[in-house]
Prior knowledge:
Elements: E1 16-18, E2 21-23, E3 27-29, H1 44-55, E4 60-67, H2 85-100, E5 104-110, H3 127-131, H4 152-155, H5 167-186, E6 192-195, H6 201-206, H7 221-224, H8 226-239, E7 245-250, H9 265-278, E8 282-286, H10 307-315, E9 318-322, H11 331-335, H12 346-354, E10 360-363, H13 365-369, H14 373-379, H15 388-391
Parallel strand pairs: 3-4, 3-10, 4-5, 5-6, 6-7, 7-8, 8-9, 9-10
Antiparallel strand pairs: 1-2
Helix pairs in contact: 1-2, 5-8, 8-9, 9-10
The structure holds flavin mononucleotide.
Amino acid sequence: xxxxxxxxxxxxxxxxxxxxxxxxxxxxxxxxxxxxxxxxxxxxxxxxxxxxxxxxxxxxxxxxxxxxxxxxxxxxxxxxxxxxxxxxxxxxxxxxxxxxxxxxxxxxxxxxxxxxxxxxxxxxxxxxxxxxxxxxxxxxxxxxxxxxxxxxxxxxxxxxxxxxxxxxxxxxxxxxxxxxxxxxxxxxxxxxxxxxxxxxxxxxxxxxxxxxxxxxxxxxxxxxxxxxxxxxxxxxxxxxxxxxxxxxxxxxxxxxxxxxxxxxxxxxxxxxxxxxxxxxxxxxxxxxxxxxxxxxxxxxxxxxxxxxxxxxxxxxxxxxxxxxxxxxxxxxxxxxxxxxxxxxxxxxxxxxxxxxxxxxxxxxxxxxxxxxxxxxxxxxxxxxxxxxxxxxxxxxxxxx
Length: 400
Ligand SMILES: Cc1cc2nc3c(=O)[nH]c(=O)nc-3n(C[C@H](O)[C@H](O)[C@H](O)COP(=O)(O)O)c2cc1C
């Protein structure tokens, strides 16, 4: 892009290198499930959707969550998957289009784990068939008994305690992550990112409320991290030493927005340290607001460090932040029906980047509002307004 970078925005438009990945700038499109891939395969609509963001100048496109090669990875027929030669061929078209537009793209690999069923309610033709399958839950638990941020009525179908994952299922799912990661590389992705947050399968092993196992996969935090670390190691093996491996993590879960996996930086170090040792290159800290302090109860400067800042400090790896860039209303508040306000906080992004808090900033909703958001940020132009009805609209006509 020849366009000048506005004064003060330089940090955002500096290149970034992670293993074989060379990014032109530090702006990423955050992963966003759109339920718009017919029969789980992206086509020209999805191709254009992703390529237009790359053409707009966004350095890194992160795909929506893509189901791994396992029967209960994703619970909606129009959520994409990477589990077959057809899916590799379809994704190859997308990666090719993004590359032709001058961008880079990584695949977010996803297994919904305990949350199986949350998307199935939107898939009318397949809902009953999907709901017959048993979700993968480390201890058979959906979340903290009696606690939910969903409405009681909507979770009634999914919440019952079921049989925990068996040892064979643990092995199968680890292998499924690795197979889909290999397929991602075959499809031309520049790397992969694992969805390790929000209460899904990887996170459900880390969260004490969904992992009460008494075997080697459960116990204290170090033991609960063994499953995600095994997945990271298997994925690293599958993608080889050159490709970058990102890992999205969060304190909160969909089941309980107040959940915390790490109560202290030391605990966070145990958690992320194990994943760094297993092969993660960049920790994508998922928060509602990118600038929020992770442990505000700490004294002095430590009380101001963000979750992404702690990930970087504790592991020595790169980190990414996300949440509320250009938007004052968090996604959670938006889902509760709150009015959506703008927030002129882009200078704070560059300030925190300059201060060494994080290396990459992901932007979700404003990438829906404007495919050319990178240009707006670069020129310090007026931020687009996020209009709920327009920008929350499905990517295409939803299933009948
Ligand atoms: C429509 C929509 C779908 C999302 N789907 C995913 C997803 O598949 N995987 C994921 O890790 N996060 C998902 N998220 C969360 C976003 O990646 C991002 O973290 C969140 O929207 C906060 O960023 P923002 O304030 O810039 O939108 C989704 C968000 C939205 C709005």
